[in-house]
Amino acid sequence: MTVTTPAGFRAAGVTAGLKPSGRSDLALVVNDGPLAVAAGVFTTNRVVAAPVVWSRTAVADGVARAVVLNSGGANACTGPEGFADTHRTAEHLAAALGIDSQDVLVCSTGLIGERLPMEKLLAGIDAAVAAVADRSTDGGDAAAAAIMTTDTVAKTVHVPGPDASDDATGPAWSVGGMAKGAGMLAPGLATMLVVLTTDAVVDAERADAALRGATRRTFDRVDSDGCMSTNDTVLLLASGASGVTPGAGELEAALELACAKLARALVADAEGASHDIAVTVRNASSEDAAVAVARAVTRSNLFKAAIFGNDPNWGRVLAAAGTVPESVAPYDPLTLDVSINGVQVCRAGGVGEDRTLVDLAGAREVRVELDLHAGDAEATVWTNDLTHDYVHENSAYST
Amino acid sequence: MTVTTPAGFRAAGVTAGLKPSGRSDLALVVNDGPLAVAAGVFTTNRVVAAPVVWSRTAVADGVARAVVLNSGGANACTGPEGFADTHRTAEHLAAALGIDSQDVLVCSTGLIGERLPMEKLLAGIDAAVAAVADRSTDGGDAAAAAIMTTDTVAKTVHVPGPDASDDATGPAWSVGGMAKGAGMLAPGLATMLVVLTTDAVVDAERADAALRGATRRTFDRVDSDGCMSTNDTVLLLASGASGVTPGAGELEAALELACAKLARALVADAEGASHDIAVTVRNASSEDAAVAVARAVTRSNLFKAAIFGNDPNWGRVLAAAGTVPESVAPYDPLTLDVSINGVQVCRAGGVGEDRTLVDLAGAREVRVELDLHAGDAEATVWTNDLTHDYVHENSAYST
Questions:
Q1: Does the beta-carbon distance from A306 to B398 stay under 8 Å?
Q2: Which of A5, A86, A150, A191 is catalytic?
Q3: pLDDT, tens digit, 9 for 90 and up, residues A323-333
Q4: A42, A44, A45, A46: best mutation site toward chain B, by most B Cβ within 10 Å?
Q5: Shortest CB distance from A47 goes to which of B299, B321, B355?
Q6: For binding substrate, which residues are annotated in this chain's numbering (chains A, B) (predicted)?
Q7: Known binding residues of B
């Protein structure tokens, strides 16, 4: 149940030898059509990796026929030579598949500031092309495994469209997907690479709007450590192989659900985390205000360290909320209520129920709810606790 | 060499019993005049502790005769009752000293969301008043010790004014100070309480301008963990006891130097840090742009964790810089240079000198220099690395 579950897609994951670990590190997804519709959302970081520069341009016409993704190297901060490497990657795959290089999208993830070993990578592409030529094997799961870096599990998703109403054959189309990412998750995306596929009939404009809407409410509301990657990419490929055009809102709903499931899986696998934390801000003056306050809480190292210590330290929630300017999120600090896992530990800006009633030690999931009493908008941002393992993993990553 | 070194000040530090540890926890600084000039800078957090609400108002007229500071409890998020506690604290001290309660400033630090044990605190004030009545003892160091929370050392400073030019008696006036703070350091101040004293002759307007200028370039450029406290307070008291009015810029320079030394001491004592990190941004289009980029780097958990691992991971410096909008800090990502402890590891946005030439293992201090090639402005922001001990200390703090 992955990128190859919708009709019209083939995929492979192979070992090109980019990773010291010897694990698989190169993935390929091919859209066999009949449509070759594509959309992409990329990091908003001003320092972007070469593959982002390439793919942003290549997808701008709404057409793509293949995506090649490598782990084992981000190809970021590698100068003009790094861009030439990405260009060569696209040309090589295009030649092997007999398509235009402008219809090839490229994604990379791994260490910043190091060139990719191109001979290994190009040989890996040949191996991946050979693998997808063998139609007896479904390479969807292998592709999802090949894009992992510090991920502990491969992340895939499949969301069927609504059942066809006039017969019992089940959904006519679906959305599949795969993602990698286990840290550096931040708004404007994360070090996350995501490929979504659908066999629905959709044009480029609808694909782009649907992908942006879904991303804004899912991946953009995951904030593992406040750090924004140079490589974040979310791609949607549509083959049209089902022959069915989804009704109004149907593709959008399925896509958002697929993105939500993958985003949740990213949080659950965040580097070194022991708790998944959902910060929900209610009764804000606007959705943007709710997101801003929730984001401030999810970015507080002190709050996140407290949760690691199973300490329902609501004072740190308030201190973080207080850093959001009134122009962004109007509220009266003396009316704020906070509940943690259902216990209202803060009432009207002061002490509420006994904090010892909150038992965090036994719960992976922590639900923080902050009521602003300033309107009726609401948003949830997900993060993780700040742990010894996070520090360890991120201090040892490049060594 | 502390708050009592300038003439006209008395201080004390006593044990009121607010801290479970039994260490001293209540400090008093009295300005004997002849002037009673005061200025204050406070947290910009919208969620502020009761003593901040009180002191902000009390200092607005530029007059104060005493400051009482307690550790062992922040009196934040304690509602109207918490404000009544602060009010009562000021009234009690004012009565004991025979002054107006509006001339008493109050500072608190410690856990958020708990009421202070007022009977103990008021008895502590009586003890402190008795201590300052004994003029044979200099309580400056005792006061600095009594405001410590997770600080490992008391932080004091003394900066003499310029030598008088017409005799050999040395400086006619000076600036003294004390500070507490060892975490939650952030712009718009930190969980830091600072009291500065001077025996220079200065009016309220000059004191306020000098304090704001000094704070902006010192305490506001320390960012230990990006978290902003509810209690931050920096106070300046001027006694005028030297009878000397400093020349243009002289008081301002001495005050800024005193603040810079205390800010540096706060970084050096930050919770669980193993490296002090100075991020200097050069050739920015404006000082604000330089500060914004430097601050983005000092707030990157990934960068800070890398430094803990003695990894000169310059890619994380660029990734952090790239999160600053172009409207705030214009620069071309392909021209960025980064050096770490003098080794230019990144040149023109790509790989520079061999990163293994940077030896961080033996250095407490790490100097990161980022050249934007976009102007001639410069700024430095200080932070610390993100360590196991930071996580431990901040997860265990309230338990």
A1: yes
A2: A191
A3: 899 999 999 99
A4: A46
A5: B321
A6: 149, 180, 191, 271, 394, 399
A7: 149, 180, 191, 271, 394, 399
Q: Find out whether A297 and A303 touch, Cβ atoms under 8 Å.
A: yes
Surface-to-core class of residue B60, CB atoms within 10 Å of its CB (0-12 exposed, 13-18 middle, 19+ buried) = middle
Cα separation, B358 vs B365, in Å, equals: 12
Q: How many CA atoms lie within 13 A of B266 on its CB side?
A: 33
The answer to whether residues A5 and A176 touch, using CB atoms and an 8 Å cutoff, is yes
Domains contained in chain A, CATH given: 9-268 (3.60.70.12), 276-396 (3.10.20.340)
- pLDDT tens track for B264-287: 998 888 777 889 999 999 999 999
Our answer to whether residue B156 is catalytic in this structure is no
Q: Which helix (H) or strand (E) holds A259?
A: helix A250-268
Helix (H, G, I), strand (E, B) or coil at B216: helix
Whether B32 has a pLDDT exceeding 70, the answer reads yes
Which pLDDT does position A167 carry in this prediction? 60
d(CA A226, CA B301): 8
Residue-wise pLDDT for A116-128, tens only, equals: 999 999 999 999 9
The continuous run of DSSP H or E covering A281 comes out as strand A276-284
Most B CBs within 10 Å, among A184, A302, A392, to test the B interface:
A302
Of B173, B177, B141, which is closest to residue B158 (Cα–Cα)?
B177
B343 pLDDT tier (thresholds 50, 70, 90): very high
Percent of chain B with pLDDT over 70: 93
H-helix segments, B182-313: 204-217, 250-268, 287-298, 301-308
CB atoms within 10 A of CB A367: 15
Query: Does A231 belong to an annotated binding site?
Result: no
Is ipTM over 0.85? no
